[in-house]
Amino acid sequence: MPALHYHPVIGGFEIFIKNICERLNVEYEIWVVTGKVNGQPKKETDEKLTILRNSSLFKLKDYSHSSYFYILTMLPVILYRSWRLIKKNKIDLLHAQGFFSGVLCLILKKITKVPYIITIQSADFSIYHSELKFNFITKLQMSLERKVY
After folding, report:
1. Phi/psi-derived region of residue 30, left when phi > 0, alpha when psi is between -120 and 50, beta in every other case
2. Each residue's pLDDT tens digit, 41-54
3. pTM recorded for the entire structure
């Protein structure tokens, strides 16, 4: 599960991902590749759940907000770490949570041939980021959404 955030970051996706992981790790080995958060270990393991927290230039300090800079610098790091994990551990299914995670899973599927499922629990990217209504960004975002979803 490549994800920008994981518990203790506060939000709907984070609670949702944590609940899925806690229920599935009884039967399945689950890996979450996410961003580094201040005060959290780089690697956590609990039964069949492993959380790998990675950092780019910055660690997340505010558990309820991520800047665009944090998001843009973390996406390539999570992509790379997920790719390495897939190769090393022979991952057979990816689970995306929303748009950003979906973009990562789409790219990973293309380069590794590992399929993904996607869970959408709220509005799409364009609803939450309506301030980015520049014509070229809107077209790119809508094209990506069609491919991801």
Report:
1. beta
2. 889 898 889 999 98
3. 0.81
